[in-house]
Amino acid sequence: MTGTGTSAYGIIGTGFAGTCALWHVVQRLTDPRRTLSLGPSAITIVTVERGPVNGPGYPYAKGNVQLPHRCNNEAGTMGIHGNDFVDWLFESKPRLIKDDPELVLETHPGIDLGDWQPDDGEFYPRALFGRYLEERFQETVKRARTHGIDVQQYVGHDAIDGYPTEQGFAVCLRDLKTGRQFTVDGFDRVLLSTGHWQSKATDALSGHGGYIASPYPPDAMQAAVAEHIQSRCARDERPRVFVQGMGPSGIDAIMTLCGAGEFTYTHDGHIASYQPAVRAGDEPLSIVAGSRCGFFSPVRGPLAPYEPHYLTEDQLAEIRRDHQGHLKIERILELLDKDLCRATAGAAGWNDMQNPRYHCAKDKLTSDLQDSYTGNLIHTIALKARRMRFYSRLAPSDKATYDRFLDTHFIRTAVPMPAANAEKLLALMDAGILTTVRQGYDAPRIAVGEDGGFRITYQGDEGGRATMRADCVVRASAQDFRMENHPSPLVQSLLGRGEIVPHAEEGYATGGIALDARGGYRALKRVGDVCVPSPHLSSYGSLVRFWQHEHNFAAAFVEAAERVADDWIGVATAASPWPAAVDGTGLVSTEKGS
Ligand SMILES: Cc1cc2nc3c(=O)[nH]c(=O)nc-3n(C[C@H](O)[C@H](O)[C@H](O)COP(=O)(O)OP(=O)(O)OC[C@H]3O[C@@H](n4cnc5c(N)ncnc54)[C@H](O)[C@@H]3O)c2cc1C
Q: What number is the ipTM of this complex?
């Protein structure tokens, strides 16, 4: 708090991003090798979480996952620091085996649990990862308190507004149980780690019976589908659900829809078949997955042994020299095309990344699964291209082109699925439960027929347009990052006050808020006609510009948390130990968190 010899930090949103921040800040504050000018008792950390618990956030929350929903990344890459998730699995092994064996067996089917060795390279259920985050959060709070740091947790509280005051920065909270509102004032630093958000913009199908705008929470989606297909089942007709989107959320939706049935396994733990859960004589659900291109992503495995020869940092530097410091997307695509051709001896190029040359999704998935054992060249090159984080350096007009037309191809090719999911999808196809369609890039929107069913237009086998009817549509497609569509009162208030600003370049709003261009994660705020780094607010995660293109994986969150923690610790190092002007620590509030 300004001028009091105390420091107060606020973390708004305690999913993976907020939990990482807490851990790295506490780690630094309690590191005996560091000399801080403030004693621990002069430091307060306040955490605010709208959900019922700290830690899991959106993708790993109990209510948002079912057992088959796996982490999309290997366990060894998902810790809040180092290999901490796997370390936690080892520490928790006896407890997990005893109390939650299904969370282990989902990833290691058929093993003798006593022999289980947590594996860096495995994909564990997201429910298990949520448990890890929740426990690590509480352990970190305990450790901080043991060192004398005051930690106040507000769970079930929504942060609804924030503004600078003489004391520092104030945050207004609403207790979601009682509706009571109050303000906590005197923060030196506040992290906006509010994470995943669902656009408040509605589409033409919103509100129509049978249209499900998100696959989460899965129980709600399942219930909505069950209710809507009742009458069709009663007529002994086969109900059909269309899942729009074939990325990770689409796969989650498919796993939820077939969750009542059972997968069988081979003796070495691979998926052998799928048995739907239907009573004799009943028709099982038909699931149709579709997207503009009609293919699933590749399957995760070792990267192919290829280092880009054309698409290199040197080449990017040359493009920037030619274009006033900007990258040009067509030059990048040319280089990418050359690398793809070189790696595949002319068999594939950029065109194949846009339009994979497979007859259908099943053929591609089968081939991708095979390639995942040895390394998939096209995936490897797309991933390496994406890891160059070129988006932020594109010229503004090229960012617009990339967002509209190209991101979909990079994401689909670079972000793979776990092999277990691929095997399940293939088993569902073999069982006649799952089929796929290609909607094409200029297909008419999904319409509602006179009978209340949905009409989906797709590309038929002969290349012409065909239409099918579905009882339900589950929307599992891309997010909308325009800030005006952010549903949170907090974000809208901060935008309205100019405490954060949408990121725009030459009039093109990329989505997400602007950060200090010199690096770090300080938000930009508006002061008169100019934008300057906020003295109080930092942010990382889906709220900030470029995140989805360049950073949306666990290691990037860890890197950001470390930078923010270093920035915050600077406050504790720099704060002059003047006598506090208020009782206790520097925060002023009518309420105290738990
Ligand atoms: C379905 C799904 C699956 C994913 N799977 C993976 C994966 O397997 N591996 C991977 O690396 N990445 C995955 N990701 C990417 C994921 O976004 C990040 O890994 C990470 O979990 C995001 O964490 P976060 O804390 O930024 O956001 P969130 O998890 O969304 O957490 C933000 C938290 O802030 C709270 N909050 C928001 N606003 C307020 C407010 N005003 N007041 C109080 N609290 C608030 C929310 O309740 C929430 O708990 C997945 C993403 C999704 C959507």
A: 0.98
DSSP state of 463: S
Å from CA of 94 to ligand 1 middle:
28
539 lines ligand 1 (CB under 6 A): no
How many A from CA of 88 to the centre of ligand 1? 20
Which structure tokens are listed for 35? Answer: 């000399």
Per-residue pLDDT reduced to its tens digit, 11-58: 999 999 999 999 999 999 999 888 888 888 899 999 999 999 999 999
Residues 171 and 49 in one domain: yes
Candidate from 22, 58, 84, 255 with most ligand 1 atoms within 8 A of CB, to mutate = 58
Boundaries of domain holding 291: 211-296+418-475
Q: How far is it, in rounded angstroms, from Cα 351 to Cα 348?
A: 8
CATH number at residue 115: 3.50.50.60
Give residue 180 CA to ligand 1 midpoint distance, Å. Answer: 26
Residues 284 and 265 in one domain: yes
Q: Are residues 450 and 377 in the same domain?
A: no
Distances (CA, A) of 546 to 78, 391, 478, 550: 21, 7, 15, 6
Tell me the per-residue pLDDT of 38-48, one tens digit each, with 9 for 90 and over.
888 899 999 99
